[in-house]
Amino acid sequence: MRAIIRFAAWVYAIAIYGFIFLPVVVLVLFSLQATSFPIPPFTGPSLRWYQAVLTDARLTSALVNSLLVAVLSSLASVTLGFLSAWGFARFVLPGSALLRGLITLPLTVSYLIIGMGLLVLFNWAGVPKSLLAAGIGHVVINLPLCFAIIYSQMGDHQINIERAARDLGAAEWKVLLMITVPVMAPAIFAGFFLSMTFSWDEFVISFLLTRFETTLPVEIWNLLRSGLNPKTNAVGSLVFAVSIVLVVFFELTLLRRKPA
Amino acid sequence: MNAPLVDIRNVSHRFGQLAVLKNVSLAIEPGSYTILLGPSGSGKTTLLSILGGFVTPSEGKVFIRGVDCTAVPPAKRPTTTVFQDYALFPHMSVGGNVGFGLRMQGVDGATRAAKARDALSLVGLAPAFDKKPHQLSGGQRQRVALARALVIEPAVLLLDEPLGALDLKLRRQMQDELKAIQKRVGTAFIHVTHDQEEAMALADHCVVMNDGHIEDEGPPERVYARPATRFSATFMGESTILSGTVAEAKSGIVTASTPVGPVSLPGASPAGAHVALAIRPEHLILGEATGDVALGTAKVGDVVFQGSFKRVLAASTLDPELQFIAKAPASATVGAGDTIAVSCNPQDIILLAD
Amino acid sequence: MAFTRNNSRAPPWALVTPALAWTLLFFVLPFIAMGLSSLTAHEGGAFTLANYSQFFTDPSYWRAMVNSLEVTGTVTIVSILLAYPFAWILAEMVPQRWQRLALMLAVLPFWTSYVVRSYSWLLVLAQNGVVNRALTGIGLIGEPLQLANTRFATVTGFVHFFVMLLTLTIFANLKQLSPSYRKAAADLGAGPIRTFLHVVLPLTLPGIMVGAFLTFVLCIGDYITPQILGGNNELVMPQLVMMQIGRRGDFPLASALSIILMAVVTIAYLTCARWLKIERA
User: Fold this and answer.
1) In the predicted model, is pLDDT for residue C273 greater than 80?
2) If contacts are CB pairs under 8 Å, which of residues 193-222 in chain C contact chain A?
3) Which of B234, B255, B279 corresponds to the end of one domain?
4) Rounded to a whole number, what is the distance in Å from the CA of C148 to chain A's nearest CA?
5) Containing structural domain, residue B76
């Protein structure tokens, strides 16, 4: 009986893994297709679609735009999030709970609605569609995330650590730079990394708020209009590969830090 | 006579509506080891925070070395604090932690390292200079926190339940070391605890606090032998408490009527006053009534073997509400259910206003 | 420890003001703009409630909301039912040293681009895609099935994403449970099934609710997955919103529809929050 349950569990797990990996395997496999349709039978392997992607100026510039927006908006998010978390954790401010609620409120609202709101506002204010507009939207979605992560990590123990530093004569800015930032580094790093991921992958806000120069997900979306195309497979596989490298790097640096 | 090192004058503090300190005044002498002893919520930690500069009192003044420090921030006053959770900087080495205060004073690296090493050897941790705090045991972290606070040579060292996070055996061991270190450096230590054994072992001056005010203060021997209040008699060690009314008072002898009959003892209280008579467990005599004051008989409820003695709880046969707490020799044959005579000597009875 | 923190000279408002200002300027203000916009006529800009009444009177708009709720409900339930046993197997049956790897593998496709993930399912489910080829190949069906551009495809794409997400949250939940609970239950005579039903499941329920709420919010507001996989055969709310902007430039109607969508999410949140509190009490 036990053995049957174990067997069933393994079969189930393998089936779920199969379900999870099926689209990825199909995506990568048919990115190597030699002919023009990413459907069976497999005619590759061939790298012609990768070549097509890398020589496509629109895709490569979209990739650069995406990186730019992701890095800058994440820096802004993590800076604003850190400062506000520090302020709320360390000082008794009137209406603190309400204001903290306000900062985290965008977490509960769909990206579509945040994008719509900004579109309507910018439209009224005459702000043109641009990467900057999309970046502003990305800070709106990532600031609450950074705030929540960093705020949750600022416990009483950290408060005592800062108090000890002040007690030993450190000025406020020294406490911030020499104690708080290093001690909070894991949370700050996690906030930045998550913001990068979300910004990098975000579609609807960029779609609504950019026009000529746009980000990679929007450019891929434009590619989709031509139907099933191995070039889309190739660019998707490339994005996947880059992300995996980053995740593995992240894992390794975190893992290496632990025994230190 | 010199002014006290620390002079706390009429300090009161409220958190919102809650009064946590009520008109507290306290003087601390240079080089003394002072213990603030009290249950949680007694205001002892708040008083320490006021001394450290982390809390500004609602009313009253704090003078350190004769200077009004009431609103001076922690960094600017000659105190340092050893925190209950040690608050070591996790990203710095032990040496970096100990040298931090000197670094803030602008002391150069070489001098800093030398002084940090000295401070670490003072607490017996010189080899740990390059380690990180998380590689140390609880007791070792405690010592690093102590070295870090002492290295900048404060006039007063404040310790917030410094041994609270350690297990009992380590606590007793660290307790001895703390006393030795204090004697060596000569800095005044002010130490908060709720552990009365710790208080008796360490203090030159023991301050018993309850409900935001000072119940009693003085050398621990005096506080134990002659507590000033009923709270002090039961919090710093145990006592049997007899409630009574003074029936007669003349020529230094008070006779009080109690549930176990009239009790005469040396003292001065006006007739008609309500009093409490406290008797330490080791002063109650069980079995033959050899004491000069007979306290009636009692039925033994519980006998707990404590190693060197037996702790006996017995209810008076005259007043079952009255619980005698007594210490019997380890060899005593007393058992639960026995009815025994209880007595004591008049000079061992502590007369307290009730 | 309650300290009044009045001794620090750092100006606290200077720390929190930038974040608050950002939120007010780029989140609250746009929302107000959207609210005002939703009350104006597309032509001329006069005050009107027509944008809202249009939603409540036009059955095709209603239909989009019903579709959204049906799809979201199905996705939430199916995802939890698939993810819970999977997370449990990972947490309980996979040896400790392999768990991290097993979990990383289980969420690996997270890292494909969001747009690309839906596109990949289109490849799998297309008329002559992998699934249809395999099914006809083994002779199970004669004609290829219509899989793409259906609600089935939308739900499949969503479930794929949320199974990964929920596996992650439920796994974390299961690992947080102290092993003593299970030992105590076993010690008191509960078998593995009763331990699970009476101890493990109730203790992980709040975590599941959080995951379910997250699924609901992310799913009901998503445009990409239904647009790519469901096609235009049946519309969900985000598609309807985007359609107003894209085809007709009708911001007021798009705003009104967005606000209605947000109201639904808020109601779900309030129900969820209350339910969670009762659970914990």
Assistant:
1) no
2) 217-218, 220-222
3) B234
4) 12
5) 6-234
How many angstroms away from the CA of C14 is the closest CA of chain B? 21
Identity (one letter) of the amino acid at B155?
Answer: A
Quote the CA–CA distance of A169 and A153 in Å, as a whole number.
25
Residue A210 maps to a domain = yes
pLDDT band at B144 (very low <50, low <70, confident <90, very high): very high
Specify whether B82 is located in the same domain as B104: yes
Is residue B247 within 8 A of residue B262, CB to CB? The reply is yes
Best CA proximity match to C16, nearest among A136, A101, A188: A101
pLDDT higher for A155 or C170? C170
CATH code of the domain in which A141 resides: 1.10.3720.10
**Residue in the structure block whose two tokens are 């891929």:** A220
User: How confident is the model over B116-126, as pLDDT tens digits?
Assistant: 999 999 998 99
Query: B206 and B346 share a domain?
Result: no
Nearest Cβ partner for A161 among B87, B104, B132? B87
Query: Does residue B87 share a domain with residue B209?
Result: yes
Q: How many separate helices (H) and strands (E) can be counted in chain B?
A: 8, 20
Question: Which residue among A157, A174, A260 places its CB closest to the CB of B104?
Answer: A174
Compute the distance between CA of residue C273 and CA of residue C281 in angstroms, rounded to an integer.
12
Q: Taking CB atoms and an 8 Å limit, are B73 and C2 in contact across chains?
A: no
C38-280: CATH topology is MetI-like fold (1.10.3720)
Which residue from B53, B87, B91 is facing A164, i.e. has the nearest CB? B87
pLDDT for position A258:
46
What does the pLDDT look like over A84-127, one tens digit per residue? 998 888 888 888 889 999 999 898 888 999 999 999 999 999 99
Dump pLDDT digits (tens) for C13-52: 888 999 999 999 999 999 999 999 999 888 877 888 888 9
The pTM assigned to this predicted structure is: 0.79
Q: What is the ipTM of this complex?
A: 0.86
Q: Give contacts of C51 with chain A, Cβ < 8 Å.
A: none
Contact C262 A113 (CB under 8 A): yes
SS3 C6: coil
* C42, C98, C116, C232, best to mutate vs chain A, most A CBs in 10 Å: C116
Which chain A residues are within 8 Å of B91, Cβ to Cβ?
A: 182-183, 185
**Phi and psi for B341 in degrees, rounded to 5?**
-80, 145
Distance, in Å, from the CA atom of B231 to the CA atom of B67, rounded to the nearest integer, reads 34
Q: Which residue do the tokens 């880059």 mark? A: A242
Boundary-marking domain end, from B204, B234, B264: B234
Encoded tokens for B197: 């054994």
**Whether residue B200 is found in the same domain as residue B336:** no
**DSSP codes of every residue in B89-100:** -TTS-HHHHHHH
Whether residue A22 is contained in a domain is answered as no
